[in-house]
Specification:
Layout lengths: L2 H27 L2 H22 L5 H20 L4 H10 L13 H9 L6 H11 L5 H8 L3 H17 L12 H20 L11 H17 L4 H14 L25 H19 L6 H14 L8 H14 L3 H14 L2 H9 L2 H4 L3 H13 L3 H14 L3 H12 L3
Helix pairs in contact: 1-2, 1-3, 1-5, 2-3, 6-8, 6-9, 7-8, 9-10, 9-11, 10-11, 11-12, 11-13, 12-13, 13-14, 14-15, 15-16, 16-18, 18-19, 19-20
Family: Belongs to the sigma-70 factor family. ECF subfamily.
Organism: Saccharothrix longispora
InterPro entries: DUF6596 (IPR046531), RNA_pol_sigma70_r2 (IPR007627), RNA_pol_sigma70_r4_t2 (IPR013249), RNA_pol_sigma_r2 (IPR013325), RNA_pol_sigma_r3/r4-like (IPR013324), TPR-like_helical_dom_sf (IPR011990), WH-like_DNA-bd_sf (IPR036388)
Length: 413
């Protein structure tokens, strides 16, 4: 097997097995630091050994066994006094007791631990991206627009607080789930977004492993809370976005915008499931249950995926849904997305004025400059559009998006 094949195997194993290995180690040893470091050491050992011995037939078992040994070695080095107690726990596989009826899934336990309300929201997101998503500290720092050192410290403090506060590694009891699920949904959406449009130039522009994991965990949470509208809304939103993945990147590695995508390549099965969930939530809204953020976003995506051609899109309905969403979530990013619908309903000049008002809040956000560049282009301001494209390219980390923006800029001459 060539060196390239080994690297590909390790990359694939990291995408597919990182969260599983970390979750299993956390359940066994009850320590996030030990789990993370042992998992990292196991993958580092794989880089050395697989190049010599070849890729093992069962990479998951190899990584889990190696990581377990690394964890045991560390415990023996650091805590001789507790060695017998620790080893007895390892042998008997002791773990935390689950509440009655809880789903037996190690990764779900891990995400609820990382999303515990004792942690700040930013820490929950960062810790879950690291421990569950397997993103590196630089990748997470890019997602949060902070320095690597600040992000490293944030993750370290979060793990230390979990240990100091004895936060349990388990799925919460049924009566505690509603209060805990909001933070989990926010984390899942961020994990999904990182897969949908990766922030790092050093990875695949679209990471199906992350989107698939976010959807899998969303399905598990829906099993726990089948009547929660926002859980259903987030799952529908993810499915409708994921359905477009086969058409989102061209053969040359360039991002394909919604208007130019081959809609025949969209996943009809995922769209049908997403539409069914949206219809269920619309029925609940008709009965007087106000929809939340994810439900409205899912409805917007349902409108997009219902159109056979971009020209068939019901932009008035999209704008009406954004008007509803702004009342629920008056954030600058929602206002930016609303402006795209405004451009189709009221014209690009009106939309450009709305986007320009967001400049102070979104100056460091590449999508702000990319949207502004497109609107300036449509209104005939070529020189200003080029400058906006330059800024968007400078801020964008995704290689496919950068390629698309570069082509659009260069078309201006």
């Amino acid at each position: 097997m060539s060196g390239f094949d080994v690297r590909e195997a390790i990359t694939r194993a990291h995408h597919e097995e990182w969260a599983r290995v970390v979750a299993l180690l956390t359940r066994r040893f009850g320590d996030l630091d030990i789990a993370e470091e042992a998992a990292a050491e196991a993958f580092a050992t794989a880089v050395e050994r697989w190049s010599v011995d070849g890729v093992p037939p069962n990479t998951a078992a190899w990584l889990t066994t190696t990581a377990n040994r690394k964890a045991i070695d560390r415990i023996r080095r650091e805590s001789k006094r507790d060695e017998k107690q620790r080893e007895a726990r390892m042998v008997h596989g002791a773990g935390p007791r689950e509440p009655p009826g809880a789903i037996d899934d190690d990764r779900l336990r891990l995400i609820f631990t990382c999303c515990h309300p004792a942690l700040a929201v930013e820490s929950r997101l960062a810790l879950t991206l690291r421990m569950v998503g397997g993103l590196t500290v630089p990748e997470i720092a890019r997602a949060f627009l902070v320095t690597e050192s600040a992000m490293g410290q944030r993750i370290t403090r979060a793990k230390a607080k979990i240990k100091a506060a004895h936060i349990p590694y388990r799925v919460p009891a049924t009566e505690d789930l509603p209060a805990r699920v909001t933070g989990v949904l926010a984390v899942l959406f961020l994990v999904f977004n990182e897969g949908y449009l990766a922030t790092s130039p050093d990875t695949d522009p679209v990471r199906h492993d992350l989107t698939a994991e976010a959807i899998r965990l969303a399905r598990l949470i829906r099993d726990l809370l089948p009547d929660d509208g926002e859980v259903a809304g987030l799952l529908a939103l993810m499915l409708l976005i994921e359905a477009r993945r086969p058409a989102r990147v061209s053969a040359s590695g360039e991002l394909v915008p919604l208007a130019e995508q081959d809609r025949g390549a969209w996943d009809a099965t995922l769209i049908a499931e997403g539409h069914r969930l949206v219809r269920e939530r619309l029925a609940a809204a008709a009965a007087g249950v106000a929809p939340g953020r994810y439900q409205i976003l899912a409805a917007i995506n349902a409108v997009h995926t219902s159109a056979r051609d971009i020209r068939d899109t019901d932009w008035s309905q999209v704008l009406a849904l954004y008007d509803q969403l702004v009342r629920v979530d008056p954030s600058p990013t929602i206002a930016l997305n609303r402006a795209i619908a405004v451009a189709e309903v009221d014209g690009p000049d009106v939309a450009l004025a709305a986007v320009d008002r967001l400049g102070n809040a979104l100056a460091g956000y590449h999508a702000y400059h990319a949207t502004r560049a497109e609107l300036l282009r449509r209104t005939g301001h070529g020189r200003q559009a080029r400058a906006a494209y330059d800024r968007a390219i400078e801020l964008a980390g995704n290689t496919a998006e950068t390629a698309y923006l570069t082509r659009r800029r260069d078309q201006l001459g």
